[in-house]
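Z., the sequence and structure:
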Amino acid sequence: MPGRKPDPKKRAQILRAATDVFSTREFHAVPVDDVAAAAGVGKGTLYLYFPTKEQLFYATILEALDVLRAELRAAISGRHGEDALHAFVGCMLDFFWRRRQLAVLMHSYEHRLREPEGVEWRARRAQLVAMARTLVVPLVPLAGRDVALATEMLLALIRAAVLNHRDGARPEHASDIVVRVFLHGLSAPRPRRARVQGARAAAVPR
């Protein structure tokens, strides 16, 4: 912003408005004028902070991830075990339940992010994954690299619940389903190969 010192409060004001607007409409259906009006600034002022709509959108995503991380930390603070997992899942679902279109846009544009936005996005996602992993480790009896897979499966369940929920569905109900499917699906004891083979042999008619 040559010739003018950036105002962090003004930037944050624009990002809050952009989050609200992008949370309710598809990317192509959002004119920059609408974001400027929602932020209470002129279009020229908005362009001083974000020269293109794409840059505004990317900044909105990164800001949303920062807010989400802070809310997740507060939600799981002082909680342990399954209680912490419920709090984590519930917080994430509630966050995106109120910003469903933003979640859809994030899912659609995740692999289109260019540098440096792509680097910043991956760094923030890695922080969320690390937070989820600390909850998964004590609950799911998997060893080694399987913990990383289990963590991604948990996040995939959350993403599926956000992207596919029906109108009128409650996030707390979806949270219960996600946690139940995750824990019972991954924590079930693995059948021993010998037992499976023995059962098959017994089933073969002689």
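DSSP finds ten helices and no strands in the chain. The domain at 8-188 is CATH 1.10.357.10 (Tetracycline Repressor; domain 2).

Let me know what you think.
H.
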